[in-house]
């Protein structure tokens, strides 16, 4: 019997059948294939799954190749099954010198290690990181939780000697481009464009500007083009001493490339002056231009202006038009694709065009932005907003926002995006903190003031909410959101209906009107039991549905029915409730899953005495939008169900739902419950009084 050990015979057999050689070659080849796919596929705009497919094929093919190498061999006569080895043949292999015996095994081990390294790197995220950044030459820069405070800087609008619109747009483009580049440096806190534009053509002193924006440094400059010459003057000023930290004049022969080079040099010089050092990634980021097409950039800026205006449907659609124009002019403009995704997404979110086609077009724009520049923070932010607005998928939204943060810190709008999702999750204190951070980086943007006021109102801090609404109106006196927010805070307890008189008078003076403001105009006289005035307000409105379109749809006839019912005119009330019900039934025929219509129809049916129908519709509204799914919109649906229970005589259920609503952040307050006629059926219920007293003691 041979003295050769079993394991020695096995390894000798592997070598004889050339399995070691196949393992080494397959591992090395797979490593090369995965590396190539990782780099080339993204540049060809192929989706991420194609690289993943290659990785899986390489991994799953390995054992198959090993088995085939064991079972078959290649001969001059072709491929055939491997013959069994003779005993002497195996013993001869075992008897070879150690260097000869082990070299084949080591090569096989090295090939296997290469394969596992490539596969393991991909699935632990290292591959994803490289795939996201190599097309643009950028790396993710993680911002440590204990990172030092960032240096705050404001880039003021650049001036121009020229007086025509082309010169003006050129200066605006240079200004915005520098801001866009500097945002990518995590050590800097850059004031958003909305706030600095307030000082365009302003003669306000440097110290006052710095104080208003709460920054330590200001960058100022001018752009002049004459014939074929370009001159850009810039200086970085220390706000405390008002002394120049750095200044330079750039004289170049005019060309788009020359302008982009100047913008990159300015951004890098400012970043070095304020952040001291820059990583290679940050330098690359600062040198990368969003687009090389000035007309595309101009269209992009116009789209952003409309999007950030805080206006309604008209402004949102104009934003989409200009951003689509930007990508027509430059289809590789990743930043414009990202902003277009946000604008399309907003049409869906606000129910201006709530269709699957619009949602799909927003995702298409997100994918184009990520495909062009996987390292662009705004593209990942747009992806997060798509998950949030399109599907209420908060976890995936926050994951995308965190990627955006890793690529450049929390810039102004990213703070706002985090805040918006936190608010929908019911994390109101965290949302408020993020909105306040956004306001620090965009201190003169009115819509942020409005978001803070809204959040404070949901926290039932109505006096503070009123203060922020007034600050909003200082910036935009005719802003409909400011007047609405004031009236809502007042009706919730910050002065009551009497306080709204001046609010409505000022809105009338400025010709401000909107569906949500129109609803408060009816609620105020209802609180005061002024039925005639409430009916006049409801009859005179030009809107088919009252309330913020995102949260409510209250047909004016329903409010007329409520007023008529409470003043004892049951026939008129029934007629009005019937009209409201028919309107809502027609809308539900087209949009059966619109929770706003379901909840409102439940109330209309309750007014008509149709108990089972009322409860069915109100419950369906809650099913479509429960508070667990959406902490803000969900409270409206639960409130409608509570009101239906109250109207049909289920006082215990009504009180239980109201108790739950007052125990969480939301619109409802004890003041509203005590003063609005919706809740009159509960007035004589001791449980209702006890519940109110308990929550009043808690400040609700």
Describe this structure in words.
- This protein has 700 residues and is an alpha/beta fold.
- The chain is 66% helix and 7% strand.
- The protein has a five-stranded mixed β-sheet, with helices on both faces.
- Helix 1 (6-16) crosses helix 4 and helix 27 packs antiparallel against helix 28 (595-607).
- The longest helix has 26 residues, at 98-123.
- The radius of gyration is 33 Å and the shape is globular.
- Mean pLDDT is 85; it is low at 125-148.
- Poorly predicted runs: 125-148
Averaged pLDDT: 85
Q: Rg from C-alpha positions? A: 33 Å
How is the CATH topology of the largest domain named? Serine Threonine Protein Phosphatase 5, Tetratricopeptide repeat
Q: Strand order of the main beta sheet, please?
A: 4-3-5-6-7
Helix content: 55-70%
Largest sheet, strands/sense/barrel: 5 strands, mixed
Overall body shape: globular
Provide the β-strand percentage band. 5-15%
Q: How many domains is the backbone divided into?
A: 4
Which architecture of the largest domain does the CATH hierarchy give at level 2?
Alpha Horseshoe
> Helix count, per DSSP?
33
The CA-CA distance between the termini, in Å, is 92 Å
CATH class (first level) name of the largest domain: Mainly Alpha
CATH superfamily of the largest domain: Tetratricopeptide repeat domain
């Amino acid at each position: 019997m041979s003295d050769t050990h079993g394991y020695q015979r096995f390894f000798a057999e592997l070598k004889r059948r050339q399995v070691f050689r196949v393992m080494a070659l397959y591992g090395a080849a797979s490593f090369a294939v995965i590396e190539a796919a990782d780099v080339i596929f993204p540049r060809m705009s192929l989706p991420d799954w194609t690289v993943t497919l290659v990785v899986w094929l390489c991994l799953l093919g390995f054992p198959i190749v090993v088995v085939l190498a064991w079972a078959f061999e290649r001969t001059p006569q072709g491929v055939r099954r491997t013959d069994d080895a003779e005993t002497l043949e195996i013993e001869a292999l075992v008897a070879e010198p150690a260097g000869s015996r082990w070299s084949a095994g080591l090569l096989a081990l090295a090939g296997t290690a290469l394969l596992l390294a490539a596969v393991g790197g991909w699935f632990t995220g290292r591959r994803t990181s490289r795939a996201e950044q190599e097309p643009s030459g950028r790396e993710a820069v993680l911002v440590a939780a204990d990172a030092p405070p960032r240096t705050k800087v404001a880039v003021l609008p650049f001036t121009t000697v020229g007086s025509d619109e082309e010169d003006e747009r050129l200066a605006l483009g240079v200004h915005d481009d520098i801001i866009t580049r500097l945002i990518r440096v995590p050590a800097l806190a850059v004031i958003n464009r909305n706030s600095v534009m307030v000082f365009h053509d302003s003669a306000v002193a440097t110290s006052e500007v710095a104080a208003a924006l709460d920054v330590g440094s200001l960058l100022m400059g001018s752009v002049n083009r004459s014939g074929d010459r370009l001159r850009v003057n810039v200086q970085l000023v220390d706000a405390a001493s008002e002394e120049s930290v750095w200044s330079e004049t750039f004289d170049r022969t005019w060309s788009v490339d020359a302008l982009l080079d100047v913008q990159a040099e300015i951004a890098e010089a400012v970043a070095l002056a304020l952040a001291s050092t820059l990583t290679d990634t940050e330098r690359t980021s600062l040198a990368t231009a969003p687009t090389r097409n000035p007309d595309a950039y101009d269209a992009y800026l116009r789209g952003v202006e409309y999007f950030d205006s805080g206006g309604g449907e008209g402004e949102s659609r104009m934003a989409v038009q200009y951003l689509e124009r930007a990508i027509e002019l430059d289809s590789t403009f990743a930043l414009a694709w990202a902003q277009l995704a946000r604008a399309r997404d907003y049409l869906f979110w606000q129910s201006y065009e709530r269709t699957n086609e619009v949602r799909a077009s927003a995702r298409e724009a997100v994918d184009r932005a990520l495909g062009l520049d996987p390292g662009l923070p705004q593209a990942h932010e747009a992806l997060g907003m798509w998950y949030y607005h399109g599907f209420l998928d908060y976890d995936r939204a926050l994951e995308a926002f965190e990627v955006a943060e890793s690529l450049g810190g929390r810039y102004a709008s990213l703070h706002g995006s985090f805040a918006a999702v936190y608010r929908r999750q019911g994390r109101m204190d965290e949302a408020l903190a993020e909105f306040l951070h956004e306001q620090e980086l965009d201190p003169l943007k009115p819509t942020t003031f409005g978001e803070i006021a809204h959040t404070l109102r949901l926290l039932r801090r109505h006096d503070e909410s009123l203060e922020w609404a007034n600050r909003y109106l200082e910036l935009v006196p005719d802003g409909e959101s400011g007047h609405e927010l004031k009236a809502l805070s007042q009706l919730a307890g910050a002065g009551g209906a009497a306080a709204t008189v001046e609010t409505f008078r000022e809105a009338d003076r400025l010709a401000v009107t909107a569906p949500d403001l129109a609803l408060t105009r009816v609620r105020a006289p209802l609180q005061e039991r002024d039925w005639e005035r409430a009916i006049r307000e409801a009859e005179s409105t030009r809107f088919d549905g009252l309330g913020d379109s995102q949260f409510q749809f209250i047909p004016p006839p329903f409010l007329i029915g409520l007023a008529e019912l409470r003043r004892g005119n049951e026939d008129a009330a029934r007629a009005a409730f019937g009209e409201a019900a028919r309107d809502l039934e027609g809308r539900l025929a087209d949009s059966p899953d619109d929770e706003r219509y379901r909840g409102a129809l439940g109330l209309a049916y309750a007014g008509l005495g149709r108990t089972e129908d009322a409860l069915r519709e109100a419950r369906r509204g809650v099913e479509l939008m429960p508070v667990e799914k959406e902490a803000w919109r969900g409270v409206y649906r639960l409130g409608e169900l509570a009101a239906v229970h109250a109207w049909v005589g289920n006082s215990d259920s009504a009180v239980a739902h109201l108790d739950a609503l007052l125990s969480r952040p939301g619109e409802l307050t004890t003041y509203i419950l005590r003063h609005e006629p919706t809740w009159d059926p509960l007035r004589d219920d001791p449980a209702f009084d006890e519940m109110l007293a308990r929550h009043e003691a808690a400040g609700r």
